[in-house]
Amino acid sequence: MTQTRLEVAYRRLLRRYPSRWRQDHGDELVATLLDLADAGGRTRPSPADVVDLVAHGLAARLGASLGLVPVVVRHRVAILALASLAALSTDLFVIAEALPDPWPAYAGYMAGGGLTFGPFVTIGAAIYPLPVAALAAVQGGVTILMSTGKITHLQAALDTSLELLRASA
Amino acid sequence: MGIDEMREPTFLVLAALADGAKHGYALIHDIAAISEGRVTLRAGTLYAALDRLTGEGLVRQSSEEVVDGRLRRYYDLTDTGAEVLAAQVDRLRSNAAAAERRLRSRLHPGGATA
């Protein structure tokens, strides 16, 4: 059977797993993903599946199962990672947009190479705010979660942040 | 893994295998049914669990077939897996019964306890 685009997408995600793991379980995992996609009328991997496969692929590489890490720790690490990315993006935004140009144009070379964006100096201005917005969405979700106790709100916020991060990738 | 810390997804994987061998998609489907839709395992999570449970000797690969070009590998409980699941069922039943008794004594202690 020729590979559909969806199967190609899933197999690309499976590259996150160690090759030995892929040899052992790759085909059955792809088969299950495709069965699920058929049942759900899906033509692209869902953001949640992307995160799931990347996380477990990494965990398999580390020789550890995520199941051994308590959920609380896992969530704390995820939030910290997102917060770090947001802080880095904020710094880059300031460096690129607010600070003076460290490489002024000389000998006919135009700084930014023409990749400008509206009033901003670099197109990074369109990318850097996304992780910040993602973190804000998660914080908003957590705040709502604390007040309502509904996990669905946090999931909605996480889905939103994943979409934002995907848009920036 | 001690059964003390058995997490719900692990319990549900073992429970879904209790009545016979199943492949990945059927397992996810059955786990959703057993948990009345509360738990839908992602495929990566399921195979990480199956890999771990196989390593712990609670689950084993039983057979495989190819349907429409897709590999279906069936997993089955080992005898140890069945024992661990049965022990966990006893434990949950005992905990649930104790909780239920205490809730009853809270609701009917002469009709007036806040």
What secondary-structure arrangement, pairings included, does this model have?
The complex is a heterodimer of chains A (169) and B (114).
Chain A: H1 5-14, H2 19-40, H3 47-61, H4 71-98, H5 124-127, H6 129-148, H7 151-168
Helix pairs in contact in A: 1-2, 4-6, 6-7
Chain B: H1 8-17, H2 24-34, H3 43-55, E1 59-67, E2 70-77, H4 79-107
Antiparallel strand pairs in B: 1-2
Structure description:
- The complex is a heterodimer of chains A (169) and B (114).
- Chain A is mostly helical and 169 residues long.
- Chain A is built from seven helices and no strands.
- In chain A, helix 1 (5-14) packs antiparallel against helix 2.
- With 114 residues, chain B is of the alpha+beta class.
- Chain B has one domain: Arc Repressor Mutant, subunit A.
- Chain B contains four helices and two strands.
- A two-stranded antiparallel ribbon of chain B has the order 1-2.
- The longest helix of chain B is centred in the last third of the chain and has 29 residues, at 79-107.
- In chain B, 31% of the residues are buried.
- The A-B interface holds A 1, 21, 25, 27-36, 39, 48-49, 52-53, 55-57, 59-60, 65-67 and B 7, 9-10, 23-25, 28, 42-49, 51-52, 64, 68-73.
CATH superfamily of chain B: Winged helix-like DNA-binding domain superfamily/Winged helix DNA-binding domain
The helix fraction of chain A, in percent, is 55-70%
Task: Output the radius of gyration of chain B.
Answer: 18 Å
**CATH class descriptor of chain B:** Mainly Alpha
C-alpha Rg of chain A (nearest Å): 20 Å
- Helix percentage of chain B: 55-70%
Number of domains of chain B: 1
What composes the largest sheet of chain A? none
Instruction: Please write the string of helix (H) and strand (E) elements of chain A.
Output: HHHHHHH
Query: How would you write the strand order of the largest sheet of chain B?
Result: 1-2
List the helices and strands of chain B in order: HHHEEH
Query: What structural category arises from helix and sheet content of chain B?
Result: alpha+beta
What is the count of DSSP helices of chain A, taking H or I runs of 4+ residues?
A: 7
Assembly of the depicted chains: heterodimer
Number of strands of chain B: 2
Helix vs. strand class of chain A = mainly alpha
The parts of chain A where pLDDT drops under 50 for at least 5 residues are none
